[in-house]
Specification:
Elements (H helix, E strand, L loop, with lengths): L4 E5 L11 H19 L3 E8 L4 H10 L3 H13 L11 E4 L6 H14 L3 E11 L4 E3 L17 E10 L5 H10 L3 E3 L1 H12 L5 E2 L1 E3 L9 E2 L2 E6 L1 H6 L1 H4 L9 H7 L3 E7 L3 H15 L6 E5 L2 E3 L2 E2 L10 H8 L1 H10 L7 E2 L2 H31 L11 H18 L3 H22 L1 H7 L2 H22 L4 H10 L25
Helix pairs in contact: 2-3, 4-10, 5-6, 11-12, 12-13, 13-15, 13-17, 14-15, 14-17, 15-17, 16-17, 17-18
Length: 499
């Protein structure tokens, strides 16, 4: 029988500059989550893309002396090109500037909220951070500066369209308290609840065409105003499914989905946990069911950011160390509830310890012993015992950790199981069994190790798919004849220089 139907999305990054390692974290987490559920037999659709209609993009193009459309297209292509280096398996990619599915959906969402009586126009003065594309109240600033970017916001005075967010305060509270909108880690749910209960204020959802430099989607019926980039961008989650174009995928993957999952960074939590669900409620669209929130990657204690200019190029890291090493570090080393500082030395040390010295060592010594003692043919022997029991428990442990959006816990459990398998080699000492002529016991140990390696490859596939494939092939991929022993993951210790 088919499993659950799960729709998974990433946020849409601004394309004012090249992609950096911080967004690679989100892509890899979303990909691992989607792969895990596909492996369970669930139907999964994974969406990513780019946010093209931002004032940040306009200003970056002006600084570069090129048309906005040219800069946006060039950088959006760089984000799309992360697919192969990061070993991703997303199903769809949407660009908000030129994808024909997007603008009709933005306009439909606008008209639906207007029909609900939730849009109105008024004069407004406020403090605006272009980096966040967000107005801030004075008490939200830190020393008069944006808490996210550390820059002084601009004082903006103009007439805009507003959304009646205040109307949805109680309904949003009920969504979160009931668990119909699940936010993980849970401390972020408490953070959102506190914000909602403090009182919601209506927010501006348009900008003057002049201030937007004419870039963006015009307000329906009011061409002197451009739709606010967040109203524009958040709609991508349904627009990519044909919300505005009548595509049946909207029914299949949004209305009838078992779960509607957004993977996002903590810096945009308010937009996804408050603004977007309220927009959905206003427009008669079911809100998302799950928000999986990751923390920040830092370098030297500072958040990796295009705006700060300290973002590491994920493609450069992969070129030097490979996708498996980067994916493993992002999933195994980054905690669920706190930021993580990236260094090349940490990536190399973790890969050498876990992938080369742990799983790689287990697979190579297993294949070598099968060749040495059985001519490369896996013994036809039973493989019961404590290790088989341990691997059965691993399935539940990994599943529970992924459901809790704690990849670090999932891969810690995986590494513990690899250690158990390596300990079996040291305890059983197959070389002594061979010398003593204990053929039946030797067959059982070898069969157990091959079965364990194959199961570990299956468990690893959502997280390091390329490495998992090499392990499967080295251990015969179900065939009793194994290929000659070869390393499945080389040590990286000789390539420590920064990418």
């Amino acid at each position: 029988m088919p499993g659950r139907r799960i729709y998974v999305t990433t946020t849409l990054p601004y394309v004012n500059a090249r992609p950096h390692l911080g967004f690679a974290l989100e892509l890899v987490q979303a990909d691992a989550f989607a792969r895990h559920h596909r492996q369970l037999g669930d139907q999964v659709r994974l969406l990513t893309g780019t946010d093209d209609n931002s004032l940040k993009n306009v200003l970056a193009a002006e600084a570069a002396g090129i048309p906005t459309a040219e800069l946006v297209a060039r950088n959006a292509a760089r984000f799309a090109a992360l697919h192969d280096p990061l070993d991703l398996a997303f199903d769809d990619f949407i660009r908000t500037a030129d994808d024909p599915r997007h603008r009709p959906g933005v306009e439909r969402l606008w008209r639906a909220a207007a029909a609900a009586g939730d849009l109105y126009r008024r004069h407004y003065e406020g403090l605006y951070c272009v980096g966040c594309e967000q107005f801030y109240a004075p008490d939200e600033l830190v020393g008069g500066r944006c808490p996210e970017h550390g820059t002084a916001p601009d004082l903006v005075a103009e007439e805009n369209w507003f959304f009646r967010l205040s109307r949805y305060q109680r309904e949003l509270e009920r969504l979160i308290v009931s668990g119909r909108l699940r936010i993980l880690p849970e401390f972020h749910a408490r953070e959102v609840l506190a914000f909602v209960r403090s009182g919601l204020r209506d927010f501006s959802i348009s900008r003057s065409r002049e201030r937007a430099r004419g870039w963006g989607i015009p307000v329906p019926g009011d061409p002197d105003q451009v739709i606010y980039v967040w109203w524009d961008a958040l709609g991508n989650y349904v627009n990519a499914l044909g919300y505005g174009t009548g595509d049946d995928r909207y029914r299949r993957w949004w209305l009838e989905a078992s779960e509607r999952v957004h993977v996002l960074g903590k810096g945009v939590l308010r937009f996804h946990a408050v603004y977007w669900p309220a927009m959905c409620l206003s427009a008669g669209v079911p809100p998302p069911t799950t928000l999986l929130v990751h923390q920040y990657l830092t370098a030297g204690g500072r958040k990796l950011s295009k705006s700060l200019g300290n973002g590491l190029d994920p493609g450069g890291v992969v070129t030097r160390f490979g996708a498996d090493a980067l994916r493993w570090w992002l999933l195994r080393e980054v905690p669920a509830g706190s930021d993580a500082d990236f260094t090349v030395d940490r990536l190399v040390a973790l890969a050498d310890n876990d992938l080369a010295g742990g799983l790689g060592n287990l697979v190579q010594r297993t294949a070598a012993m099968v060749h040495r003692y059985r001519g490369g043919r896996v013994p036809d022997a039973s493989a019961p015992g404590p290790l088989a029991d341990r691997l059965r428990r691993l399935t539940a442990e990994v599943g529970a950790a992924v459901d809790a959006f704690d990849f670090r816990a999932a891969l810690t459990a995986f590494r513990d199981a690899v250690d158990d398998a390596n300990r079996l080699v040291n305890a059983a000492r197959p070389w002594e069994l061979a010398r003593a002529g204990e053929e039946a016991e030797l067959d059982s140990v070898l069969a157990t190790l091959v079965a364990a390696g194959r199961e570990l490859a299956r468990q690893a596939e959502p997280f390091v798919p390329a490495l998992a494939g090499r392990v499967r092939r080295q251990l015969g991929d179900g065939d009793p004849e194994l290929p000659p022993p070869a390393p499945v993951f080389p040590r990286l210790g000789g390539a420590r220089s920064a990418p």
